[in-house]
Amino acid sequence: xxNTTKWSVAHKLIFxxxxxxxxLNIFPFPLDLIGEPIYNLLEKFWAPIINLLGxxxxxxxxxxxxxxxxGDTTWNWLQELAILMIAxxxxxxxxxxxxxxxxxxxxxxxxxxxLRYYLAATMLSYGLVKxxxxxxxxxxxxxxxxxxxxxxxMGLLWTFMAYSKGYQLFGGLMEVxxxxxxxxxxxxxxxxxxxxxxxxxxxxxxxxxxxxxxxFSFWLMLIGIYLLSADAKRLWQFFVxxxxxxxxxxxxxxxxxxxxxxxxxxxxxxxxxxxFIAQFYSNxxxxxxxxxxxxxxxxxYKVEKFERDNVTSExxxxxxxxxxxxxxxxxxxxxxxxxxxxxxxxxxxxxxxxHTLRMTNYAAPVTDTTQYAFTYSQPDSETxxxxxxxxxxxxxxxxxxxxxxxxxLTTRGFHWVNEVPFNK
Length: 424
Hints:
Blueprint: H1 9-26, H2 36-58, H3 74-97, H4 105-131, H5 141-145, H6 153-163, H7 165-183, H8 188-208, H9 214-229, H10 232-240, H11 258-286, E1 299-308, E2 311-312, E3 322-328, E4 331-337, E5 343-351, E6 356-361, E7 371-377, E8 383-390, E9 393-401, H12 408-411
Antiparallel strand pairs: 1-2, 1-3, 1-9, 3-4, 4-5, 5-6, 6-7, 7-8, 8-9
């Protein structure tokens, strides 16, 4: 029997807007599994729209910085503005075109499934990189020696999270559990509640620690809220009015079709296999270097001698004062600093047989494949000599390991009993 519940004009407009807004933001899921080709097509679609808006709003001819490690680029904000405009105009046109429709229960049913699985995949992905401490990693020697006032707000948050593997695990498990609950219809409401709560916290951290994932985390939270909207009355009655409530009467689609029931089970198993089991295994493998032995060259160094093109200078702005060769979680990295404000991070690969370091710029555009190759030698366990080139300059560096320090942050540990607050 068809559902004849009549939707109000406001109900229709909100549904049309949400359908277009979420759809444009989420697409090409799940086609994004194809990878780069689909993203290239999407960029070609969005580029003229975003450049037009950039010209109108900002007075620039072309937005040259494409989405990268930051999810809050000018491109992202203009794209979000375009999506809001398209969703607003499209919902009005849709309302006029479908003015004789009583409701869109079936379409709402499919939209809910689409949003459920997208949010579940995202929560599982973000959760697993915290369960295996890959997102925040571990505290490096650079962070331990760095002054608090020199940290960026995001760096402070990353250090806070990196300090405690237990808290990282807890945060990751909350996201994983929320994602798993969203996969099943009976636990969707609980999963949406947990997802919305977790993502509200993530959004607030992104907002107040200036982490450039504000847009993405905000509309992930909105998806959780939207999934709860159908149960808003029931939730209000149960949690606020303390009254009994009835189970949701959900529309049935292909209820009498055996192929649909079997197909749904198969697709659910495939989804769990690709988003949970496969990612669990992938993250488990990626986390293996965390516990791998470190080479003797790792450590914090003070630069004793710096030569550029065979000339030693104390005033050279490129001259390094300190270098920290370390591993942040599963990722090898080098931080270099000097008194002129240089704070640079590079990723590196080490060949201990050939005694070479190959460095690449951290967070560089995909098109930037520049590598800096250095050879190294260790006359003794405390000294490291580097020789190589930065652009057209020949560089020689002699460094001495800093004396081991016992930092309170890493030695204080955990205490069940504290007679007085230990707040230093």
